[in-house]
Amino acid sequence: MTVKSSFRVLDGDRKTRDLVSAFLTYKGYETVILDDNADLFDTDRTTSPRILVADLVSLFARSGDALQQIWQTDPEQVAIVYAQSDAARTLPHDERLIFLPKPLNLDELESVVMRALEYQALKVRMPEQPVDEYPHFLCSTIIGRSRQMLNLFEMIEKVAESSATVLIQGESGTGKELAARAIHQLSSRSSKNFVPVNCAAIPDDLLESELFGHVKGSFTGAYANRIGRFEMADKGTLFLDEIGDMKATLQVKLLRVLQAKEFEPVGSTRSQKVDVRIIAASNKNLDEQVATRDFREDLYYRLSVIPITIPPLRDRREDIPLLINHFQGQFNRDRRRLVKGFTREALEMLCNYDWPGNVRELENLVERMITMKESGFITVDDLPEKYLAPRTVVAPPLSVSGSVPVGKELPPEGICLNSAVDAFENGLIMQALHRTGGNKKEAAALLNLKRTTLIEKLKKKNLQFP
Ligand SMILES: Nc1ncnc2c1ncn2[C@@H]1O[C@H](COP(=O)(O)OP(=O)(O)OP(=O)(O)O)[C@@H](O)[C@H]1O
Description:
Elements: E1 6-10, H1 14-26, E2 31-33, E3 50-55, H2 56-62, H3 66-73, E4 78-83, E5 97-101, H4 106-125, E6 137-138, E7 142-143, H5 147-160, E8 166-169, H6 176-186, E9 194-198, H7 204-212, H8 229-232, E10 237-241, H9 248-260, E11 262-263, E12 272-273, E13 277-282, H10 286-291, H11 297-303, E14 306-309, H12 319-334, E15 338-342, H13 344-352, H14 358-373, E16 375-378, H15 417-435, H16 440-446, H17 451-460
Parallel strand pairs: 1-2, 1-3, 3-4, 4-5, 8-13, 8-14, 9-10, 10-13, 15-16
Antiparallel strand pairs: 6-7, 11-12
């Protein structure tokens, strides 16, 4: 049975219907006009793609639930529905539905037809993997396949069972809050509140009242009694983010609550009991802050009963393609885009980049790229300049001393030497692997390294030749 394109056109207004049908036929698509007697829900699944182009009023005249009924029979059918602009909000939010405002513009119709075709092509080639079967998720939010992330998943599952205080450390954007939420979600406290507090975002003089609440009249502006985050988190979890920014006097009070499991609201002398699990996080090195006496040692030990460190993304590069794929799916859905992915070269650039902003930076980049690109593949030319650095690395000749001279000028704002050297080294290693088709022995010879040294480097840097 041959699989052919098929558009079904539904419109009570004959003139518009004939125009749409003639236009699609002219563009080379097989088109069927649905007259009054045609069964809207008996879709012929031997045709592909299956796209309905319909006037909203005519569609709803058949049934107010017409779209859902069509999708029940044929879940991959795309509906291009046109109506007056303000009718858009009456339509369900669904990636299979494309709205087109009236009056119909044939250029716009052509472009949404392309989108619909791309959507279906994508669905046929890449059936979505059910989340449950996806092996690299925790709580369906944290993604990673690197050894470090799999260890982290295990750790989170273990610590969730207890109520011990957890201290999560890691650079900004590595997913500390996500990890804290997962611990709460997997714990027996999950039906109660998860209450986050960003200690760095709240002015010092307000943080105490924010945490413990206050009684009316306790300070200027305290017009009424107010409960604090500790009370809100009773029987649940309190997430103290950026704990390293908490001022010394408050550190003492927090220590007392951790020890006595009770606190007093600002302006009150009455102690209140609470049952709160504390998860603290910091992107500063608390060890160093303890050494410089910026953080109390006793509080540090109280908080770090279970210490967890989330490694920066550059130390687990094999997670990058997985994360890109995840965010791509998410933003294609959210922004109603049909971007198919990143080209291999673009992906390689991104895998070589150092991601100082970690997963947050990666997520923002993918969102920006998907929003701007709309469909097709994202290529190296679409990437912002800063992500291209490794491509500009051309293996220069060895200097007399045997060291490799840096081919770029030092920018006026300076550079991070370690990252630059690291990126430069990664670029050369990947080039050597490319040139030798992934043969490590030959690549090592090109780099004047022992094969085992190259393998060690690849492992240490988490570099993978695709
Ligand atoms: N492993 C991951 N999988 C999926 N998304 C992630 C992952 N890690 C981080 N993210 C996403 O990256 C963004 C930053 O994560 P999060 O806020 O948890 O980081 P953080 O370490 O707490 O940052 P900060 O130190 O700046 O508070 C969020 O949008 C989060 O959903």
